[in-house]
Amino acid sequence: MREEIQHAIEVIQAADALLIGAGAGMGVDSGLPDFRGPKGFWQAYPPLKKLGIAFEKMANPRWFRENPALAWGFYGHRLQLYRKTTPHNGYKIILKWIEELSLDHFIFTSNVDTHFQKVGFDENKIYECHGSIMQFQCSHNCGQEVWMPSPDFQLLIEEHSLEAKEPLPLCPTCKAIARPNILMFSDWDWDSKHSSIQQRKYRDWLDHNGNKNLVVLEIGAGENIPTVRLECESVYSLQKAPFIRINPIEYKIPKGGISIQLGGMQALEEMEKQRGFNA
Questions:
Q1: First vs last Cα of the chain: how many Å apart?
Q2: Distance between CA atoms of residues 206 and 4, nearest Å
């Protein structure tokens, strides 16, 4: 692994721009639940195991119509968990590289936890392709703009049933049940306006940096929901950019890429340690 890490350090240090692709594995090292497969999901949410509801079934907007208390029990718990969780040291290491090496950068992430913003990354250089749990929208899509809940917003959630107690969040315009501004499965009501603005900024950034020495750094992006993985592979193919994939399980990489078979935090800490030795 030392050779791969050394190679990764060299290409980043020679870069002008850095694309960071972050999947769910980036958050696991901060202590966030791993939803890969029913076992990890049900370990985090035992009441859903009793009901036989897997993540793919729970992450569906129909619950806000059919059982809003359960829907907000699940998403309210995640919101409160993400708020109180401290992002791991790997985030700070990437930010340190960007500052020390004067790297133009952008983050393409499927994570909805806003942990990059929490650490201090520029909001204008982040594309949350699946939205953010920290923003709400109307479940009826009545025209109300996406809004941020108050910082002290909190739901009381029954531990044994995972159901949130009244009052549940409502749309300020039409008083329908609110929902997180997250792209779910079979989701025709997702308000994508905010994400679309981020996407335009990302595409403009790629156009601007296409002729520069661009490096793709992908962390914790799996094959189950492959949005980040496919985007990073696409940029690698089109831009002929050096490609680093950090993944302890699904680590196979297209020919010419650099594969580091570690978790995100461990890999980044090892890279920073080895970079220090070679300074």
A1: 19
A2: 26
Token pair 């509801």: residue: 53
Q: Give the integer Cα–Cα distance in Å for 170 and 158.
A: 20
Q: Residue 14: what pLDDT?
A: 95
pLDDT tens per residue, range 208-223: 998 889 999 999 999 9
Output the CA–CA distances (angstroms, integers) from residue 66 to 9, 89, 151, 209, in the order listed.
Answer: 50, 40, 28, 46
Rounded Cα gap, residues 188 and 144, in angstroms: 16
Proportion of the chain above pLDDT 70, given as a percent: 98
pLDDT given at position 275: 86
Residue ranges of the alpha helices (H) in the chain?
2-13, 25-28, 37-44, 46-51, 55-58, 62-66, 68-84, 89-100, 115-119, 193-209, 227-239, 264-277
Q: Name the phi and psi angles at 57, rounded to 5.
A: -85, -35
37 Rama class: left (phi>0) / alpha (psi -120 to 50) / beta? left
Cβ contacts of 184 within 8 Å, gap of 6 or more: 59, 60, 61, 190
Count, in order, helices (H) and strands (E) of the chain: 12, 8
Distance CA 276, CA 13 (A): 12
Q: What is the DSSP letter of 165?
A: P
Q: What residue type is assigned to position 8 of the chain?
A: A
Mind listing the pLDDT tens digit for each residue in 141-197? 999 999 999 988 999 999 999 999 999 999 999 999 999 999 999 999 999 999 999
Handedness of CA 39, 107, 127, 92 (dihedral sign): positive
Question: CB of 271 within 8 A of CB of 2?
Answer: no
Per-residue pLDDT tens for 165-176?
999 999 999 999
Residues 6+ apart with CB under 8 A from 275: 9, 13
